[in-house]
Each structure stands twice: as C-alpha cells, then as structure tokens.
C-alpha cells in the first residue's frame, strides 16, 4: 500500500516497496511494508531527483499498468507533514505505527532520507531516534547527503553527534558517484581481467593515473553552499577520491565483503603521502565573484578565494605505486561536460614511420563515466594492451567507434572510517590553500591553455605564465575587465603588484635580468637574500624554471641569520639551501653563509663573526655595493634582523651587526641599513592578506627607522622596488 500527505514545511512519503503478508522464513530478510520519509522533500534535490527516483521504483513494480494510472496511484500515496518540532516527530512516529496496526501490515523497516543542510543532521537524527524508531525487529536506515563536514574536525564532530542517536549500520552516507554504472564496475573489471592486469598494475608499467570531472555549468543558484566548500570539498574529497581508492586498493577475496573492501580502502588512505599547497593548482572562473556578491549580498569590495577549479597530484607510499603520479582534477565553467578515470601505461615502442600503427598509440584503460564525445558509460581498453573479458551480460563489446577524446549495497555508501580517513588526508591541503588566490579564467573555450598544469617531481604548477584577470573597478579604475600586472608607486618608490603566482614570476624575471646585466658588465652578480617564509616561492621558482640563470657567476650572501647552527631548521641558510642552493649548479666558494657559529659557540661578540663577514663583503663586493638585496617586512615593520627600538644609528658605518629579536631565537646577525642602502637595487617582497593592515599603515607613516626599520631603506644611488601581491595590497 502507498500513501502521501501534504503540509507546509517538510515532507513525508510512505512507500510500500515490498508488501506482503506471507510468513517470513528463518534467517531471511524481513518482508513487508517500508515507510520512506523524505525530510526536505520540497527542496531542489528532491524536486530534481528524489521524487523521480522513488516514482521509478514504484513504477517498476507495476510495469504492466499505464503510466498515467501509475502516476495517479503514486500521488495518492504521499502525505505532506510539517516536521519542525519534537512534537511533530512524535506525531509522525505515532501515525506510522497506528497506520500499520489499523491495516494489519507487517513492517519491514523505515527509511529516512535527509535532504537538508548538514547542520540539521544531528537534531533530526536525535528526533528520529527518540520518536520514530520502528518496533518488532524492523530496521531503521537514515540516508545522509554530502557534505559530511567541512574538514576533519567538523566531520569527526558530526560523526560523534550522529553516533549518539544512530548505529553506524543505520547511517547511509550516500555518494552518488559510487552508484554510477562504470564506477560500480571498477572492482569487478579488475577481478575479471586480473590475469592481464596483475603484471602491469604497478609503477613499472603505469605512467600516471588521471581522474577527471569537468563541468560546463557555473555555481549560480548554489553560491550559499558552494562558497563555503569550493571544488575540492564539493567533488574531489569525495567522488574522485573514492574512484582513486577503487583503482588502487588491493582486490578483496570477496567483492561482496563490505568489511574487507573497507579495510583495503583504509590501507590506501594510510599510505597516501601528505599534501601541501605545492601539490595543487587552483583557479576561479571570472564571473564567480560577481555571483557571490549578488547571491550573498556582498559589497563590490568583497573578494572570494573559493576555488572553482583544482588540479592536484597525489602519491601513494607503497612499493606498488611509489612515485607514480595520480592526478585528480575538476572544475566548473570548463569547455565540456565529461567524467573519466584513465590509466595511462608506458609505451616502450618507438615508431620510426608508422605512427598510425596500433602499437604507436597510447596504451590506456579509460573508465568513461559518461557525457563527452562518447555520451554513454563505457570501459575502453587500448587494442595494444589486451582484449578484456566481459564481466556480465549487461555489458557488450564494441570494437568500432569514433575516437574518444579524454584529454582536453552498503559498499555504495561511505562508512565513518572511510569518511574520516578521506577528510584526514584532504584537510591539511585545504588549510594550506585557504589564503591562496586562485588563478582567474574566463570560462568555456576561452580558457584556452590557461588551466593546463605540469608535474615537477611532487609539485604541480600551471604550465603557462599568463597574467591574471583583475576587474578594473576592483583596482579603483573603470571599464572592461582585463589581464594585467599593476605598476605604480608606494612610499614614493616603484611598486609592482599582481596575484601571488604572477608576482613571483615577475620578481624572478627581474632578478635574472639584474644578474645577466651584472655578469655582462662586470663578470659577477652579488645577491643578498633574507630569511622568512615570503621568499620560499621565489626560491622554488628560480630552481625549477630559470635554467639559464648565471649561477656560476653569482655570489649568494645572507641579509640576516638566526644565531643557531646552520644545519638546524630555524636557520635562514638551511632554508635557502634546501629550497634553492642544492638545486642549482654553483661553485661552493660563491656561497657565503653568515658565520654565526665560531669556536663552538653562537654569536659571541668576542669571536668577531660580524667583522669577519664585513671583511669578506669589502674584499669581494665592488665598493661593498650588492647588485640586488631582497628584503621582507615583518608585522612590526622590521626588515632583515633590524627591529623596532634597537637604536639602528648605533651601527654607524658598520656593514654587519649583531642584533636582538623580540622573538626566539633572540640573537641575530644582520646587514645594517648602511650595507643595504649601498646596494644597486633593493626589492621588498610583501605577500598575504595578513600583511594588508601593515601595508596600509606603512603607506601613511613618515620615515622613522627606529620605530619602523623598513622606512630606513633608502638606497643612496640605487633603486627601491616594492613587490606587493594583491592580497597584501587590497586585503
């Protein structure tokens, strides 16, 4: 029997999915009436998918009847209830029990589908537990839609809250991707073709794995949800990660053993290498911020950092897959709607002439989820690999088709352990990217190659150096939007500003230009570099992209150093060495660390370490004038290791001095203002939203080096250039 009731807030539907009055056989699943309650039944998801899905389930049982009659019967079975208070749930539970008693129906179970925001899950679960549990051995199942939390901590909290009301076997966290036909066939395909796959399913034969989900639509209409989550939380942390585990997990002895499948998935999660921001590239389509301003009622000054595109590289630290890249990528406003997982195998055949021969083409297996040029789901295997065995009668072999372009049960739900393992893996990356500005892209075919990315060891970078799109009105101007790196003035000196990635590209290019000019004119380039976190991206850029940099003719000096052994992680020189020096070919005698450790002690004035470094500068650097000095600036206005209130005038004509920091380690060695101001060019790098208040404040203060040491940077005859990213400049 079917029944439906309507009210004003949330929706109830009761569905007799299996009706019967027959006696149950011992050990068999209970047969009888199933009540289905859709909480949030008037929402967007329910309107688009849930009602349609339940109708098809009902219609499949009555396939001999006319559709119009089936629809009429289905609508008569719906009841619309308001489920707002605890009393509402009590009334619902009482109604369900009384209805079954009156009609003499055996109850098999109750299914609650929570099509509501995740913040409401815990309260609803508590009310279901208190008022709506079935009796007499009938089962309870509560289906939960993603998102299951925002990060590891929130997912753990939500799981704990739900666990006070529901047993784990009663919770069904649905991932609709696991229900896709091809995704559900990944493990069976691997099992049926294990004789072909086992020898080649490893790092020696696989070049890389790609898991891709491309969308052409924007986020309009979903902004209140999407702006809190972004593309990684929306589809990569869940859908694409699940596909990755299915492709890489060990095959269970029994594919139907839910517990064994879970154990094998968790083994993969435990072996995933840590992700940081260098493992990902992120983007945002051009109109997204305007949509955010409109739907969230934000001002024109508001700027969202939520990514709508991401390309991420993952590695699994087990012998089978060691150093084998797995690429996960997804985005909105791309050129086509497409989803696939591709295993690209290494091809050891070099074709001299017959490039169209089957042996010359890529060896690959593609799990094609649908859409794109093929339109239907399929598993594609290159002819130069093997002929696959068909899994069951639902699949058929197709040997002739157009080329497909892919460039350009409880185990269908997510367990608590699986969920927390996934969030545990992704949360560090999400936190690392929280303040990173995404690359803007126009959307659709106009994206061109802007979002192409390349793999460099364990890191991912965009493949091209296109500058980014800045709305003119956001920059204080007017007119159409365009791509630009902004140049201007700051504190009466030159300023270059751009988004972080483009700013680093520009600074690296300026450094190489200065180096080439110095070597061309005098045979040597003297570069002084400071510590801190700001220059790390620059060091990596120089090491990986500037292969023509004249390193052999470059001398590297330190602007400042902490008084710790040079091998310790706190050492500025150790940071410089790890991120730059060890990656370039430079004579060791061209590297000049500050002598902070002498006579087995640190920064003792009697050891004359500062005088020794000053003597080296005088001997090797023409007129003691560095070609380029790169500085940062601290929140208190300090630069190098010159801190507020340290009486900088006392350094006199010295080039190097011992100084005191308010933060540990307190003792420092630093170039003085005199040494810095003698340079031919001084660059000050300022990055990050956290520096916006400082940038604003410095723009207003007068020169006062004792209070604001950075204001004492005034090159005598050289140039001062401020490199400030838009986060620091605009906030």
UniProtKB/TrEMBL annotation:
GO molecular function, one term: 6-phosphogluconolactonase activity
Residue ranges constituting the Glucosamine/galactosamine-6-phosphate isomerase domain according to the UniProt record: 500-722
GO CC, any one term: endoplasmic reticulum
Pathway in which the depicted protein is active: Carbohydrate degradation; pentose phosphate pathway
GO biological process, alphabetically ordered: glucose metabolic process; pentose-phosphate shunt, oxidative branch
Domain (Glucose-6-phosphate dehydrogenase C-terminal) ranges: 189-449
Pfam families: G6PD_C, G6PD_N, Glucosamine_iso
Keywords for this protein: Carbohydrate metabolism, Glucose metabolism, NADP, Oxidoreductase, Signal
NCBIfam families per record: pgl (TIGR01198)
Annotated protein name in UniProt: Hexose-6-phosphate dehydrogenase/glucose 1-dehydrogenase
Species name: Oncorhynchus kisutch
Gene (name only): H6PD
């Amino acid at each position: 029997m079917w029944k439906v009731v309507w009210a004003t807030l949330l929706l109830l539907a009761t569905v007799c999915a299996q009706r019967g009055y027959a006696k149950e056989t011992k050990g068999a699943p209970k047969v009888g009436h199933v009540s289905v309650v859709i909480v949030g039944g008037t929402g967007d998801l329910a309107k688009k998918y849930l009602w349609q899905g339940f109708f098809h389930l009902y219609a499949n049982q009555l396939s001999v009847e006319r559709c119009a009659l089936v629809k009429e019967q289905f609508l008569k079975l719906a009841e619309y209830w308001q489920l707002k208070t605890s009393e509402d749930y009590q009334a619902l539970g009482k109604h369900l029990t009384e209805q079954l008693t009156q009609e003499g129906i055996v109850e098999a179970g109750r299914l609650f589908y929570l099509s509501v925001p995740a913040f409401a899950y815990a309260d609803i679960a508590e009310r279901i537990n208190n008022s709506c549990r079935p009796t007499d051995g009938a089962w309870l199942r509560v289906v939960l839609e993603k998102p299951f939390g925002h990060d590891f901590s929130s997912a753990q909290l939500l799981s704990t809250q739900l666990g006070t009301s529901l047993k784990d076997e009663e919770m069904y966290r649905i991932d609709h991707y696991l229900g896709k036909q091809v995704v559900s066939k990944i493990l069976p395909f691997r099992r049926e073709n294990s004789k072909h796959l086992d020898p080649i399913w490893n790092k020696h034969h696989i070049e890389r794995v790609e898991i891709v989900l491309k969308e052409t639509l924007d986020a309009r209409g979903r902004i209140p949800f999407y702006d809190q989550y972004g593309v990684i939380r929306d589809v990569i942390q869940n859908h694409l990660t699940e596909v990755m585990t299915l492709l890489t997990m060990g095959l269970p002895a029994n594919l139907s053993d839910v517990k064994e499948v879970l154990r094998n998935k968790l083994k993969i999660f435990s072996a995933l290498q840590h992700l940081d921001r260098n493992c990902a590239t992120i983007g945002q389509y051009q109109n997204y911020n305007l949509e955010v301003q409109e739907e969230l009622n934000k001002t024109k000054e508001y700027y969202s950092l939520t990514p709508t595109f991401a390309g991420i590289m993952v590695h699994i630290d087990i012998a089978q897959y060691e150093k084998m890249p797995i690429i996960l990528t997804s985005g909105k406003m791309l050129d086509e709607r497409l989803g696939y997982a591709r295993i690209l195998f290494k091809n050891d055949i070099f074709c001299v002439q017959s490039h169209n021969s089957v042996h010359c083409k890529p060896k690959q297996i593609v799990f094609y989820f649908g859409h794109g040029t093929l339109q239907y789901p399929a598993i594609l295997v290159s002819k130069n690999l093997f002929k696959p065995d068909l899994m069951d009668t639902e699949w058929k072999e197709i040997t002739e088709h157009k080329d497909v372009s892919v460039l350009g049960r409880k185990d269908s739900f997510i367990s608590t352990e699986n969920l927390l393992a996934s969030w545990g893996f992704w949360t560090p990356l999400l936190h690392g990217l929280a303040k990173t500005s995404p690359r803007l892209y126009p959307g659709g075919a106009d994206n061109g190659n802007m979002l192409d990315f390349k793999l460099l060891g364990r890191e991912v970078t965009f493949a091209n150096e296109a500058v980014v799109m800045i709305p003119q009105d956001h920059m204080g101007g007017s007119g159409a939007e365009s791509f630009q790196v902004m140049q201007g003035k700051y504190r009466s000196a030159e300023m270059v500003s751009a988004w972080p990635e483009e700013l680093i590209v520009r600074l690296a290019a300026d450094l190489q230009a200065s180096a080439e000019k110095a070597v061309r004119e005098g045979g040597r380039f003297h570069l002084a570099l400071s510590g801190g976190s700001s220059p790390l991206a620059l060091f990596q850029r120089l090491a990986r992209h500037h292969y023509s940099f004249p390193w052999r003719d470059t001398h590297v000096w330190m602007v400042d150093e902490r008084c710790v052994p040079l091998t310790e992680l706190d050492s500025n020189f150790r940071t410089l060495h790890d991120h730059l020096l060890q990656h370039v070919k430079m004579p060791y005698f061209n590297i000049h660390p500050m002598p902070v450790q002498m006579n087995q002690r640190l920064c003792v004035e009697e050891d004359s370490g500062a005088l020794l470094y000053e003597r080296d500068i005088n001997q090797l650097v023409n007129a003691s004038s560095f070609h380029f000095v790169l500085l940062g600036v601290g929140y208190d206005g300090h630069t190098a290791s010159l801190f507020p209130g340290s009486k900088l005038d006392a350094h006199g004509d010295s080039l190097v001095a011992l100084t005191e920091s308010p933060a540990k380690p307190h003792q420092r060695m630093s170039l003085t203002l005199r040494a810095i101001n003698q340079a031919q060019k001084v660059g000050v790098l300022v990055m990050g939203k956290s520096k916006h208040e400082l940038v604003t404040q410095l723009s207003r203060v007068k020169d006062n080096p004792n209070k604001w040491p950075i204001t004492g940077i005034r090159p005598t005859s050289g140039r001062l250039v401020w490199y400030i990213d838009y986060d620091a400049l605009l906030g």
